[in-house]
Amino acid sequence: IDAFVLDPTTADPWYRRAVRVSMGEMIYLPIGRAARWPEALNELRAHGFVIAALTPSHDAVDLSVFAASKPARVALLLGAEGPGLSQAALHDSDVHVRIPILSTVDSLNVGHAAAIAFAALGNPDGA
Questions:
Q1: Whole-angstrom Cα distance, residue 1 to residue 123?
Q2: Which residues 6+ apart lie within 8 Å of 25 measured at CB?
Q3: Do the bridges between strand 4-6 and strand 31-33 make them parallel or antiparallel, or are there none, so unpaired?
Q4: CA dist., res. 125 & res. 95, Å (int)
Q5: How far apart are CA 59 and CA 42, in angstroms?
Q6: pLDDT (tens digit, 9 = 90+) per residue, 91-110?
Q7: What is the Cα–Cα distance from 76 to 41, expressed in whole angstroms?
Q8: Paired strand residues for 75
Q9: Full-prediction pTM beyond 0.85?
Q10: d(CA 93, CA 42)
Q11: Integer Cα distance of 117 and 73 in angstroms
């Protein structure tokens, strides 16, 4: 993971608990806040990023399939716990990606979903 881009309403990433829970790792990661969301995705796309939205939707591409053929530059969108990504962010993404879970489970905690996706996308074998 090279950087975080936050939407205008995301909580303060420098909040004491956020720094502590990350064990201080977030101090070493560039963090930017987009002034306009999801319009900022167009700028990422212009720099060669494929915008991949994590969603529990059953018609989304399985994470392992996406990771196996991942593009060189991926911007992964993660939504708030509960409501998930906005319809605008989903619409402005290039691909919808899902972490396979039991049908009886609504969704994953955003931290867990991020960890799973980061591990899958960071694996050089894509698995």
A1: 12
A2: none
A3: parallel
A4: 20
A5: 24
A6: 999 999 999 988 888 778 88
A7: 11
A8: 51
A9: yes
A10: 9
A11: 14
